[in-house]
């Protein structure tokens, strides 16, 4: 008799869009560390925990594989992807290129309405810091940066950013492990937003390089120093 996989804290689902809901639940579990890098996604266990059949779990796993969160091995199943230093460098290098350009364009396109939207999203980051909800904070952090890309007004730029979405959520989740006080994560966005509001490209680039570059350095160090985050990649 096979041992029963331990639960990972997934809530039961409603009947609509099962695949999408399973994918979101698994993404949350990965970001929050309940499914750690290299961990196997036990389809039967996830299905039992969510109160559904295995089919939508398998489809959700395939979706997350396409998004870069999971990897599959023949006859072994799906596993949470491990990120090594090379992965971190590639993600952050591309992220810097995309967001540096997007922030300059956003500054040019800034209106009172989207300025308020950015300020409101920053407030949401501070509010979320009080909730002790790491997954929600990752999502709001990601939303702040995506909003900059939206205001930039380039559909292709936004598409590239969205293609990085799952991997960005993973690395943003890692950033959360670097701060004892979640409000500090929100505070790191203040100088960047101020630079966009002032509209000087050189200052925007400098603040963005610092904002993302600091995270790049620290996440890279984290992956090197914590064995279950680095030391090889499941592919």
Description:
The chain is mostly helical and 235 residues long. Helix content is 66%, strand content 4%. The chain has a 3-stranded antiparallel β-sheet with strand order 1-3-2. A hairpin with a 3-residue loop joins strand 2 (70-73) and strand 3 (77-80). Helix 4 (85-108) crosses helix 6 (134-152) and helix 6 (134-152) packs antiparallel against helix 7. Residues 230-235 have low confidence and may be disordered.
Name a few traits of the molecule:
66% helix, 235 residues, mainly alpha
Topology:
Blueprint: H1 18-31, E1 40-41, H2 43-50, H3 54-66, E2 70-73, E3 77-80, H4 85-108, H5 112-129, H6 134-152, H7 155-163, H8 165-176, H9 183-187, H10 190-198, H11 201-225
Antiparallel strand pairs: 1-3, 2-3
Parts with pLDDT < 50 across at least 5 consecutive residues: 230-235
Helix-residue proportion: 55-70%
Task: Please state the CA-atom Rg, rounded to the nearest Å.
Answer: 19 Å
Order of helices and strands: HEHHEEHHHHHHHH
User: How do the strands line up in the largest sheet?
Assistant: 1-3-2
Q: How far apart, in Å, are the first and last alpha carbons? A: 29 Å
Tally of alpha and pi helices: 11
The total strand number stands at: 3
The rough form would be described as elongated
Q: Please, what is the average pLDDT?
A: 86
* Largest β sheet strand count, sense and barrel closure: 3 strands, antiparallel
Could you provide a short overview of the structure?
66% of the residues lie in helices and 4% in strands. By secondary structure, it is mainly α. Helix 4 (85-108) runs parallel beside helix 10, helix 6 packs antiparallel against helix 7 and helix 10 (190-198) runs antiparallel to helix 11.
